[in-house]
Structure formats: structure tokens, C-alpha cells
Design brief:
With about 350 residues, the chain is of the alpha+beta class. Helices cover about 20% and strands about 30% of the residues. Strands 1, 2, 3, 4, 5, 6, 7, 8 and 18 form a nine-stranded antiparallel sheet that branches.
Length: about 350
């Protein structure tokens, strides 16, 4: 029951809600949206998602504002990214109409699980696309399941909007150039679990990955994009291995709105010494400011925040984006969609 949920103490984990929304692709066409109260799916043992990794997912959030309205942030961008992923691993594209309607319906059906305003929590929306058709040879499925479920979540990092520390290691790669790095597929996250476990055991929040080819350039911060601030410029890596973060895309625009310069380019590792602020960004955490980065292979330490507090630009960007998501500031870019009045 929602009355038993302590909204202010939610972690980033799964909590059962009432309904999910499903849609099947069979016989060359998508069917109608179906509503289910089951947390399980009936899947053929030879489904391609189980054997050959034909699986894609997205993550977005719905926020309840001070005005009582519930807004979903940048749904259309998630729909487009899932379509790009589907193209990349030969799955059937989910049409915009089905994706958007399924997300909206899932939020509306579970409205009692949308965390209240100022609780620090949000309703996380998880669209999932899997190859459900059976194959034994390595080939694409001819049947697919698209579904959307939701769950209320707190901060991704237990520290919330506080500085965390990262580690660099050259012993692990998240993804390779010209591989599946730019696609939101489960395999990329499975590849990061080992290094992520080491990081947690050593007291770090995540791994800062370097490019897998030369180990000279910064790629990603675990499950998030990297950005650095210096000389009134927002800088984020350009790489074929990086998932195009919708949050990063939003922060780039907000930085420009604030009069900052923006650059998306290769970022050499040694440039870390020159940044005034560093952060990891993504749907789950929005911005996670970085206080220190330790290179475990060389013993070098990059101290970003000398007082252990988020820098002023990170604070401004974080507050601005959150204000738009909650409807506290005008959405001049048309990013939010009101789904509940």
C-alpha cells in the first residue's frame, strides 16, 4: 500500500505497483496495448533475448509538481533512442505512438505511486523491448514484446546530490568502438558489473572508463555520461562507445541558455587536471558531482572538489533541470508532457 511507503527514504530499487502495459509484435504487425497486473512474462525458452541478447530498455521519470500536475520528461527522445537501439541489434522498431501511449498509460494507471512533491523521489518508467520469438541459429527474432512498467524511486546514489568519488581502471571495458556502446542494451550493463563491484568494494561510487582502444580518452562514468566544466565551458566526450544521454543533451542546452560555451569532443585523460568541476549525468541521478578521481593503475589522484561540495555550475544546472522537470520554471524547450492534472 502506498500509505506504507516512506517517500523520503526510497532507494533506487524495484517496488511493486498495480499495472504494466504490454504490446506484441506478431505476424508482421504490432497489436493493441494490453494492461496487465502480473509481474511475470510468459517467454519461450528459445527466445532470442535469452540467447543472443536481443533486448533493449529505456529509463525516464515522471514528476509531481507543486501545482499537483504530473509531468514526464522528454518521452519522445527516449522513443527515438529505443528505435535507434532496435535498428542497431535488428529488432522491430516500436512506433512513437505505441511508445508514448504506453508510457502515459502506465503512469496514469499507477498514479497512486507517483511520489509527492518535495519528497526527493520520482516515478521511474522502464520501457522494455525483447526478442520473444524462438530461434536456435543466430538470427533476429520475428516476434517481439514491448512493455512498460513503473516504480517509485529515490536517488540513484545514496549520497543524493553530494560529491562522490570515482576510480579509473584499465582492466575493464564497458563497450568497444563500433560495437553496442551507443545502444541501451543489457549487455553493456552486464559488462560493467565486474568493474562496478570492485569500485563499490573499494569505496567508490562508480568507474570512470577510458576508451577501449588506446586508454587515452575519457568515455563514461559507469552508468552515466561524463562532463567537465572549465573556463565557462561545458565539455563532454565524443565517442562511438558512449550512450547518448538525454540528460546530458538537456544539460548541454541549459548550459548554452546560461551563456556558457559547450563542446562535445574527445577528452584526454590528462585534461582532468584542468577541470574546475566534474560530474556524471543521467536519468537516474540527474547530476552526480565528482569530488575525486583515483587512477588505480598509476596511483595518480585528481582532486576536483577541495571542500567536498558540488561546484557552483553543477548546482545551477541541477537546480535548473529539476525546476523544469517539476514544472517550477517555464519549459521553453517543450521537454515535459503533462499526463495527470
Amino acid at each position: 500500500m502506498t500509505g506504507e511507503i516512506d517517500w523520503g527514504k526510497l532507494s533506487f530499487t524495484y517496488i511493486k505497483t498495480d499495472y504494466n502495459v504490454r504490446c506484441y509484435y506478431r505476424d508482421g504487425k504490432w497489436g493493441e496495448l494490453e494492461i496487465s497486473s502480473s509481474e511475470s512474462i510468459n517467454l519461450h525458452m528459445a527466445a532470442t533475448c535469452l540467447h543472443y541478447g536481443q533486448e533493449a530498455f529505456e529509463g525516464l521519470k515522471a514528476f509531481k509538481g507543486k501545482d499537483g500536475k504530473v509531468r514526464i520528461f522528454r518521452m519522445a527522445d527516449n522513443a527515438k533512442r529505443m528505435q535507434d537501439t532496435a535498428d542497431g541489434i535488428l529488432m522491430q522498431r516500436v512506433p512513437d505512438e505505441i511508445f508514448l501511449n504506453a508510457c502515459i498509460k502506465a503512469v496514469q494507471l499507477n498514479s497512486r505511486f507517483v511520489p509527492p512533491y518535495e519528497s526527493g523521489a520520482a516515478l521511474y518508467i522502464r520501457p522494455l523491448l525483447i526478442g520473444s520469438g524462438p530461434k536456435v541459429g543466430v538470427s533476429p527474432a520475428d516476434e517481439f514484446l514491448f512493455m512498460v512498467f513503473v516504480t517509485p524511486v529515490g536517488p540513484y546514489f545514496k549520497e543524493g546530490f553530494k560529491c562522490t568519488n570515482l576510480m579509473i581502471t584499465r582492466q575493464h571495458d564497458r563497450a568497444a568502438p563500433n560495437g553496442t556502446g551507443p545502444y541501451k542494451v543489457g549487455g553493456n550493463y552486464a559488462a560493467s558489473l565486474g568493474a562496478g563491484k570492485i569500485a563499490k568494494e573499494r569505496g567508490y561510487s562508480a568507474v570512470l572508463y577510458l576508451d577501449s582502444r588506446e586508454k587515452k580518452f575519457i568515455d563514461e562514468c559507469g552508468p552515466a555520461n561524463f562532463f567537465g566544466i572549465k573556463d565557462n565551458t561545458y565539455i563532454t566526450p565524443e565517442s562511438k562507445s558512449i550512450l547518448p544521454s538525454i540528460t546530458n543533451k538537456s544539460l548541454l542546452q541549459l548550459a548554452q541558455d546560461m551563456g556558457m560555451k559547450t563542446e562535445r569532443r574527445q577528452v584526454p585523460l590528462e585534461e582532468l587536471e584542468t577541470f574546475e568541476e566534474v560530474g556524471a549525468c543521467g536519468t537516474a541521478a540527474v547530476i552526480s558531482p565528482i569530488g575525486r578521481i583515483d587512477d588505480l593503475d598509476t596511483g595518480k589522484q585528481y582532486l576536483i572538489s577541495k571542500d567536498g561540495e558540488p561546484g557552483p555550475t553543477c548546482v545551477k544546472l541541477y537546480n535548473k533541470l529539476r525546476a523544469i522537470q517539476y514544472g517550477e520554471e517555464p519549459d521553453t524547450h517543450g521537454w515535459t508532457t503533462v499526463v495527470l492534472e
